Amino acid sequence: MSLPAIDYLDWIEGRPESVEHDLGSSDLRGAAARDPDVVVPERLAGLPDPGPNPDPDPDGVTVREAVAATYEVSPGNVLVTAGASPANAVAAAAALDEADPAPDAAASTAEDYLAFEDGFDPSGSVLVEKPAYEPLVDTPQLFGARVDRFLRRASADWRLDPEQIEAALVDDTALVTVTNRHNPTGRLTARETLAEAAAVAGAHDARLLVDEVYAPYVLPADGDDAEHAFGGVTAAGLDGVVVTGSLTKFHGLGGLGVGWLIADEAFVERAERVGRHFPSLPGPSRALGRRALANREALERDSRDLLGRNADLLATFVEGRADLAGPVYEGSSYALLTHERADGDAVAETALDRDLLVVPGRFFETPDRFRVSLGRDGVHVREALDVLGGVCDDL
Fold first, then answer.
1. In angstroms, how far is the first alpha carbon of the chain from the final one?
2. Angle at the Cα of 90 (from 217 to 135), degrees rounded to 5?
3. What is the pLDDT of residues 310-325, one digit of tens each?
4. Is the separation of the CB atoms in 209 and 89 below 8 Å?
5. Could you give the count of Cα atoms lying within 13 Å of 326 in the half-sphere of its Cβ?
6. Could you read off the pLDDT of 104-113 as tens digits, one per residue?
7. Which alpha helices (H) appear in 276-361, and where do they start and end?
8. Measured distance CA(233)–CA(188) in Å, rounded
9. What residue ranges define each of the domains in the chain, with the CATH number in brackets?
10. Which of 203, 204, 253, 284 would suit a FRET pair with 318, their CA atoms being 20 to 30 Å apart?
């Protein structure tokens, strides 16, 4: 089997650090730069570690317990991973394993029986939204899954439609995968709609995976705290739902690689067995992750302040350009846009000539568009948007 290439990750690697103007990074890092030689991220330097908690952890509350408390679930509902991408991979493998038929008592030979014992059925499928973040499409293929698609339509304002999911489900669908906020458009889906999607998937014996790395990208008025984790909509706790998240995007702590998976305890136990085939989260990342979660209210205030300012800058910029189109959703600092005279690659290439990074839409299955992300500090963003304005004028 040939491994699927993840073209977007190959393309983006190293680019944000190599350009003067970065409108490609969607994590809210602000002014902080990612320096591989810096052990403690600038945002965490000087913050206190969590206090002692002698039972069961002599050094304080664990990352698993802190995540569980944030989502108001039991620690048994949480699996800590080395980032959100491994969490999504583990979720896909565990869902396929869960849907794998039990060994056939009437298997004709011992070899047939052992084939069931040693692996899961490669005929299982995963249903993924379109447009989508590329690894969500490619990674399930590593486990022998067929990947089917359902549409989130531009004509429907990119909304998640449970009817589209239902129409695309087939007998062997084990997992339905969506993002919230939607990556790459920024469209936010309400918990009620996610519950409908989960019910549709569950009626076909499939689970719903909701990648929530962008879920906290909301302004305070967007929702009440009762149904939200890190201030954003969450599907955690809904029947048949697997939620993944991380400290990378909203908290701007991508260097730590702290991610998690949330589901019912039976699925988490299965995911833990699958997760043994993946790298575990290193001790230093666990320690700094504990620090971040212990101080999350202060970190969230900073992130939400940056998010609000940059979301306003993006909305104002797009509204003021007659040559650009595409929705900028409230509370989102990233958007998928079109230029009236150029496709996504032409915009991105012209931008790079001016030392500006934007992401071609072909990496999100929309080659006529490009994604703009405002994750840096206000001064950087304003200068970068000025450059983008000049790029649009030249086109």
1. 42
2. 60
3. 999 999 999 999 999 9
4. no
5. 25
6. 444 444 444 3
7. 283-294, 296-319, 344-353
8. 8
9. 7-37+298-394 (3.90.1150.10), 63-294 (3.40.640.10)
10. 253
